[in-house]
Amino acid sequence: MPTTGSPDGSHVYDELREQVLVANRRVVELGLAVLTFGNASAADRGAGLVAIKPSGVLLDELHPDSIPVVDLETGAAVAGDLRPSSDTPTHLRLYRALDVGAIVHTHSPFATAWAQAQRELPCLGTTHADHFRGPVPITRLLSADEIAGDYEDATGVAIVETLASRGLDASTMPAVLVASHGPFVWGRDADEAVANALALETVATSAYRTLALEAALESIQPELLARHFDRKHGPTAYYGQSA
Amino acid sequence: MPTTGSPDGSHVYDELREQVLVANRRVVELGLAVLTFGNASAADRGAGLVAIKPSGVLLDELHPDSIPVVDLETGAAVAGDLRPSSDTPTHLRLYRALDVGAIVHTHSPFATAWAQAQRELPCLGTTHADHFRGPVPITRLLSADEIAGDYEDATGVAIVETLASRGLDASTMPAVLVASHGPFVWGRDADEAVANALALETVATSAYRTLALEAALESIQPELLARHFDRKHGPTAYYGQSA
Amino acid sequence: MPTTGSPDGSHVYDELREQVLVANRRVVELGLAVLTFGNASAADRGAGLVAIKPSGVLLDELHPDSIPVVDLETGAAVAGDLRPSSDTPTHLRLYRALDVGAIVHTHSPFATAWAQAQRELPCLGTTHADHFRGPVPITRLLSADEIAGDYEDATGVAIVETLASRGLDASTMPAVLVASHGPFVWGRDADEAVANALALETVATSAYRTLALEAALESIQPELLARHFDRKHGPTAYYGQSA
Amino acid sequence: MPTTGSPDGSHVYDELREQVLVANRRVVELGLAVLTFGNASAADRGAGLVAIKPSGVLLDELHPDSIPVVDLETGAAVAGDLRPSSDTPTHLRLYRALDVGAIVHTHSPFATAWAQAQRELPCLGTTHADHFRGPVPITRLLSADEIAGDYEDATGVAIVETLASRGLDASTMPAVLVASHGPFVWGRDADEAVANALALETVATSAYRTLALEAALESIQPELLARHFDRKHGPTAYYGQSA
Questions:
Q1: Which of A72, A221, B128, D203 could tie B203 with a disulfide, CB 3.0–4.6 Å?
Q2: Residue D204 CB: number of other CB atoms within 10 A?
């Protein structure tokens, strides 16, 4: 139920849909996905709604009214004539389990290579540490039953499990690599989710090349990882203009 | 003989040529070919005609009337002053053997590397499975006699053989890599053929990098391959807006 | 204390800030950094001032008045409402130790890979020799105490040490790679510093690929290195229009 | 002495300079060189003149009158206030030894990697065979005396020697890689030289990646090499519109 905006909730939808449309366009402009690969969504927690890219539609053809809005809990269609992304159940599973405001699923080239290689992305530099507090984890493979059943929901479950089993928090680890598939990335809002997706691709690229130069590297110093993450995030942050 | 359009068939040619011109331009814009490398064609099966890029001409200089139209069966010139692509016999051989509406031959960087390496492109991720139902196969090398003889036709024959010998259908395997050469890709129409060529380059890129990270990988799980292909294609598809 | 410009020094700031804003924009346009990664600064030695990018701000939002100006010796804020880059202490340490007019810190993809691999960048071609008189050195890792303490200043100290311990001069070696982090690059002015950062990325890229083709290479001939550097720099230079 | 154009030869210079300016701009636009790296020239054999890029000048600042014109035999300045490229003696040596109309020296990323690796570029695909009739050869290293002496002329001598010692003709092998340096490429005119430089970078890229996938490859079939080269070049050519 919308808690802000006009009586019929349409202004809530407008803002949310606009945010999602912009995020989906940014994903393509930044080279994080081609064709109709990839999708971005954002949640209005007060209203219990999620806006998400429609399935298999080129972004040039879209305006905010084309963006489907669904119920965060049930996935039921709330607004929009187009079918939502086939990955919608994955997004909804994540919104229900994690305290995040927006989710981006890309097929960005280097992050996808790590996901396909079924390897976690090690933290090999300070750019990584600026965004991700440790290695970006990789999910287990899904079972044949999970793939044959409610596959997209099972993907979301695997992501949540991956964070939980490593004691990770969505706010300090804003991405997981889905094995044989690609990255899911999130943030407090769509801008942050897209920025994190770009940061992920950037560090996935440099880690790939770093290991080509020095195969035995495992991680930067733990102190350096902590220093860089904490100077940008959390109570002791001194990066940026807000603190 | 044209079966639709104006009495003299000129409107049939216009639409077909326009489609082919746009496809050839997209191939260059998407970085799938440089200079005059690569070529796209489309068929009007009712009319028994194929429109194809002229040979060795930069696309900036072209308008639809520049696009040669040839007879699908005989290759005889039907319209246009320019000589058709030297690869026209390859295209015609494919139109006669396969149920496809358009063909794109690119020199896209990573797909060409796989073709030159004489290796089939393994299916290492869901993006691959979304477009190609299994590894993209590679042709055998041509014999010295085939190269010295009707070389471009022999290339088409080798592509058709490659599909047949593996029991593959053009609709579920819309590309073949020609050994020492590069990819031929197709679709129901020019838009789909170009999209498949872009998808091929995308997955050729990520497969290259995936193996650099994990050399022993052979394939994603067969269940995952089937699930992803089938959610986009065929009777049980639930991706996109059309089903 | 400003030695040129209007009585209140504002014109000195304008020119310096404009130079710094342009340099920061060039860094992004040239692909040497994404998001808010990277930062450029320039010094007015007569005035004892340094202008530097504000921390964590997207460049689209900036105009020259947004550029912070700080005291070269103390780091105290002299002008501007925004907080200067968190890397400011590194820049100031370099200005105090080295005779340079501008400094650029990028996260350019290949130079960062070398820095993360903790390897110096060998001189494998004449393009390298045109800009850097020998291998671009890499710093030692910082100690846990240095990381926990005045970390950004310690980074600058490590850069200065790296040059000194190898007997290098900032004018013939206009870059150092900071281990696990990325490159710091300089020049007589902001234009030259940006050009050197682009040259560094270019040669870091070709060195990476050169070693992939021929892993055992160590250096070009010392005579060739000297010839190329000296034809562009120093008393016997005959490259360019100025000599 | 000019043999065509207006009495004072100025129209000969205009056309030649314009051609050279366009070629130098294309080299940068195509990503074959950054900053002031790389240079293009063209000869008017009737007039015994060569126009070439000025040394160390950014192309944005140039108009045709800025392009230096020198005597093909002596290198003496004929027109223009700017100093010609420091590589001018290399170009002149090539014009005197080879029947070519234009020369392009780039630092294109992958061709430079092969040159720095001191490896000839093998012919691993038909795109290579379309442009270069066999492996693109690499020069020997220059001696310390050659480097200390008339270095740029010695570079030209080494290129000519490399062709001669392999029995190669400039018309069927329009490029040589200079060891530890980069490619020199030519053609009948500036357009063809630039196109060959782009083709070289394209095939240097795919050869690099082909060997990463299949290290033992040495060459495509000799019949295939001959077929592709000859279908585009020489008396039996059937590619393009001109034959």
A1: B128
A2: 24
- Among candidates D213, D223, D239 on the partner chain, residue whose Cβ is nearest the Cβ of B208: D213
Q: How many domains does chain A have?
A: 1
Residues 6+ apart with CB under 8 A from A234: none
Percentage of chain D modeled with pLDDT above 70: 94
Helices D190-213 and D10-29: crossing angle in degrees, nearest 10, is: 20
Mark out chain D residues that contact chain C at CB-CB < 8 A: 34-37, 54-57, 82-83, 86, 107, 109-110, 112-119, 141-142, 144, 147-148, 151, 180-182, 208, 211-212
* CA A119 to centroid of chain Cα atoms: 18
Q: Which residues of B touch D195 (CB under 8 A)?
A: 35
Strands D77-79 and A39-44 come out as unpaired
Do chains D and C touch by CB distance (3+ pairs < 8 Å)? yes
From the candidates B127, B128, B201, B203, which should be mutated to test the interface with A, based on the most A CB atoms within 10 A? B127
CATH number at residue C88: 3.40.225.10
| Residue C216 domain-assigned (yes or no) | yes
Cβ contact (<8 Å) for A214 and C34? no
- What pTM was computed for the model? 0.94
Q: Could you tell me if residue A196 is inside a domain? A: yes
Residue of C nearest to A125 (CA): C180
Residue-by-residue DSSP string for chain D: ---SSSTTSHHHHHHHHHHHHHHHHHHHHTTS--TT--EEEEEETTTTEEEEPBTT--GGG--GGGS-EEETTT--EEE-SSPB-TTHHHHHHHHHHS--SEEEE---HHHHHHHHTT--B---SHHHHHH-SSPBPBPPPPPHHHHHSSHHHHHHHHHHHHHHHTT--TTT--EEEETTTEEEEEESSHHHHHHHHHHHHHHHHHHHHHHHH-TT-----HHHHHHHHHHHSSTT--SSS--
Rounded-to-integer distance, Cα B186 and Cα B197, Å: 8
- Single out the catalytic residue among B71, B130, B153, B191: B130
CA nearest to A180, candidates A121, A114, A136, A116: A116
The ipTM of this complex is: 0.92
Residue of C nearest to A243 (CA): C83
Residues of D whose CB is below 8 A from B83: 240-241
Backbone angles phi, psi at B134, to 5 degrees: 125, -175
**Which residue in C82, C107, C144 is closest to A241 by CB distance?**
C82
Give D225-240 as a 3 state SS string: HHHHHHHHCCCCCCCC
Please give the distance of CA D136 from its chain centroid, rounded to a whole number. 12
Contact list in B for residue D203 (CB cut-off 8 A) is none
Q: Dihedral of CA B118/B120/B125/B129: which sign?
A: positive
Cα dihedral sign for B68, B69, B70, B76?
Answer: negative
Task: Quote the domain boundaries for residue D75.
Answer: 14-230
Q: Is B169 a catalytic residue?
A: no
Residue B164 included in any domain: yes
3-state secondary structure A140-174: CCCCHHHHHCCHHHHHHHHHHHHHHHCCCCCCCCC
Tens of pLDDT, residues A18-76? 999 999 999 999 999 887 788 999 999 999 999 999 998 887 778 898 899 999 999 99
The 3 state secondary structure assigned to B193-231 is HHHHHHHHHHHHHHHHHHHHHCCCCCCCCHHHHHHHHHH
Residue B156 lies in a domain: yes
Q: How far is CA A23 from CA A30, A88, A190, in A?
A: 10, 16, 6
Mean pLDDT, contiguous 10-residue spans, chain C (243 residues): 44 86 93 87 96 88 89 96 95 98 96 98 97 97 97 98 97 98 97 96 97 96 94 85 65
- Contact: A83, B124; criterion CB under 8 Å: no
